[in-house]
Specification:
Largest sheet: 7 strands, parallel
Helix content: 40-55%
CATH topology of the largest domain: Aldehyde Dehydrogenase, Chain A, domain 1
CATH class of the largest domain: Alpha Beta
Number of domains: 2
Structural class: alpha/beta
Number of strands: 16
Length: 427
């Protein structure tokens, strides 16, 4: 197992990690699908077998986090339980069962001159993942990258280092058991913030892509300073719009789940928009349901007149990712007004609509430019595992290459194979 570095020069350490990752990339890209799957299953088995060791390591991180004053949302992200560890192992097994994307022919065509052209999936290369708090990312990211034939360098947060080290040891054990290069999954063993800086520089050309997964300050730093491409989302300012055509019971169930199932995830709803036409019938049941679940409601003056228990919302609330049991609520004049509000305040991560009118849903889906849109379903489904992708490294909200859940297919690039029988190009 890796340990914290002492006086080791961070730049030298990171350069060596980059070289090892690059050296592991080519042999990993040649590994057949069944061999990668076997290694992933061995990783999952090791995670379950070492559950107690992982829990012991996590207990240290949790104690340190409480002492450091981490928020309840951050502690929830950090906490591992036997059930969550089993979920991590099951996620790795689900990735193992996915079709191998490497070598998949995504398009093929023939030219009039007889050339046959194919577009084929290939690994992206060496991927750097920088994340905070969630130790499960160690397994998710490592497994996804290996499945797609990529080497990965993982830099977890200092608050989750012990948990990540314990999980990483299981990932390396699986690589070893499957005969794959052990340097295909490396975990940065130091809490020195300079390690992140070295990754953002590209590790001497050895890093091809960076994926940040964490709070706004981390993602902003990565997007500002990185010298290599970045897949990222800055915030999850998620909206749920309840239309006048919505079924009341469905709307209440969805709203409570979308906000309160887990408040600290990026798919948690932060703003509830309710069609003004149904305020007399729908508003109180929606807010009563949220309050009963323990949610603090911050609302516009109009909403507070109808439901006085709400606190006053200020301008900042409409653009805040709470990651906590807090929701902002506003009445809107139908779907057009809802779309205008969302496009003004959204981070283009995830938005949901509860409606029975197909014309409303069509407008919502066509006019809102967010990575994930849901109809009559909780925004908490904004997750690669729930999409059948096994797991995800994160949700990308940019428009280049990957958007939405970043799974195995999004961790590939492509090349063209052109087959001929002697053709030459005329002068």
């Amino acid at each position: 197992m890796l340990t914290k570095t002492g006086n080791t020069d961070t730049a030298t350490l990171m350069a060596e990690i980059g070289r090892k990752a690059r050296a592991a990339l080519r042999p990993l890209g040649l590994v057949p699908a069944e061999k990668k799957s076997a290694a992933l299953i061995a990783m999952a088995d090791a995670i379950e077998r070492d559950t107690q060791a992982i829990l012991d390591a996590n207990a240290i991180d949790m104690a340190n986090g409480e002492e450091a004053g981490l928020t309840s949302a951050m502690l929830d992200r950090l906490k591992l339980t036997p059930a969550r560890i089993k979920g991590v192992a099951d996620g790795v097994r689900a990735i193992a069962a996915l079709p191998d994307p490497v070598g998949e022919v995504t398009a093929a065509w023939d030219r009039p001159n007889g050339l046959h052209i194919e577009r084929v999936r290939t690994p992206l290369g060496v991927i750097g993942v920088i994340y905070e708090s969630r130790p499960n990312v160690t397994a998710d990211a490592g497994a996804l990258c290996v499945k797609a034939g990529n080497a990965v360098i993982l830099r977890g947060g200092s608050d989750s280092l012990n948990s990540s080290l314990a999980i990483h040891a299981c990932m390396v054990e699986g690589l070893r058991a499957g005969g794959l290069p052990e340097d295909a999954i490396q975990l940065v063993p130091t809490t020195d913030r300079a390690a992140v800086g070295e990754m953002l520089k590209g590790l001497g050309g050895n890093l091809d892509v960076i994926i940040p997964r964490g709070g706004k300050s981390l993602v902003e730093r990565v997007q500002t300073e990185a010298r290599v491409p970045v897949f990222a989302h800055l915030e999850g300012i998620v909206h749920l719009y309840v239309d006048k055509s919505a079924d009341l019971d469905m709307a209440v169930n969805i709203a409570v789940n979308a906000k309160m199932r887990r408040t600290g995830i990026c798919g948690a709803t932060e703003t509830l928009l309710v069609d003004r036409a149904i305020a007399p019938t729908h508003l109180a049941p929606l807010l009563d349901g949220l309050a009963k679940a323990g949610c603090e409601v911050r609302a516009s003056d109009e909403v507070r007149k109808a439901w006085p228990a709400a606190k006053a919302a200020n301008d900042a609330d409409w653009s805040t990712e709470y990651l906590d049991a807090i929701i902002s609520v506003k009445l809107v004049d139908g779907v057009s007004d809802a779309i205008d509000h969302i496009e003004t305040h959204s981070s283009h991560h995830t938005e949901g609509v509860v409606a029975e009118d197909p014309a409303v849903v069509e407008r919502f889906f066509n006019e809102i430019d967010s990575a994930i849109l849901l109809h009559n379903a909780s925004t908490q489904f904004a997750d690669g595992g729930e999409f059948g992708m096994g797991a995800e490294i994160g949700i990308a909200t940019g428009r280049m290459h990957a958007r939405g859940p970043v799974g195995v297919e999004q961790l590939t690039s492509f090349k063209y194979r052109v087959r001929g029988n002697g053709q030459v190009r005329p002068g």
